[in-house]
Design goal:
The protein is 72% helix and 0% strand. It is elongated and about 60 Å long. By secondary structure, it is mainly α. Helix 2 crosses helix 8, helix 7 packs parallel to helix 10 and helix 7 runs antiparallel to helix 11.
Length: 205
């Protein structure tokens, strides 16, 4: 296993804890990773962990929040500008989704999150607020701008957002499951683009 401690010498302790924990969670799962193991890899005493996090669950939730909230780099002021262009708004969103789907570190955490979501109520709440709600809101704002400017047909922007996001999520889930069983996903590599093309044809004026 790589020398995690050496690679993190210049990082702050809290950042080291998060980076090391993410690696260990991906390799050993949530239950297979202990606070003692995290401290050992970071190169600090176990008691020092508690100066930053109250327990292992808090570390895991912090890492999960990063996974949920980081993929989409839309700023509020850019949503309207890009949405006015119509299809490029959907294409950028889908391509960012594709990038996180095929990112190895993100994929490993996604698999772990799928398992832990069924067992951790706080994680489920975090998923709904940091991933689901924020992304539906972002998409809804974009679709609303398009409707106001007669770029797409008038409808319920939230329902359209659900329809657009749900297919992307399903493609991501399918790819994750196939890669878990070492099945080639090469045939799915263009599904994100195809989804954008199909979806755009169904809503444009």
């Amino acid at each position: 296993m790589p020398d995690i401690t050496t690679s993190n010498k210049r990082m702050g302790t809290k950042e080291k804890i998060l980076k090391v924990s993410r690696t260990l969670f991906c390799e050993h799962g949530y239950k297979g990773t202990s606070v003692r193991k995290i401290a050992s890899e970071v190169g600090i005493r176990e008691s020092a962990i508690y100066n930053h996090y109250k327990n292992k669950e808090e570390i895991f939730l912090e890492i999960s929040k990063e996974i949920f909230s980081s993929p989409f780099s839309f700023k509020d002021e850019n949503i309207r500008e890009l949405a006015l262009k119509g299809k490029p708004f959907l294409h950028k969103y889908a391509m960012q989704y594709k990038l996180i789907t095929f990112d190895k570190n993100n994929e490993n955490m996604f698999k772990l999150l799928l398992i832990e979501l069924l067992q951790n109520k706080e994680l489920r709440g975090q998923f709904m607020s940091d991933f689901h709600d924020k992304n539906i809101k972002l998409l809804s704002e974009g679709f609303f701008v398009m409707m106001q400017n007669n770029v797409i047909r008038s409808s319920d922007p939230m329902i359209i957002s659900y329809e657009f996001l749900s297919t992307l999520f399903y493609i991501r889930l399918q790819i994750t499951l196939m890669r878990y069983d070492s099945i080639s996903t090469i045939t799915l590599s263009t599904q994100f683009e195809k989804h954008v093309d199909f979806f755009w044809e169904s809503i444009k004026i």
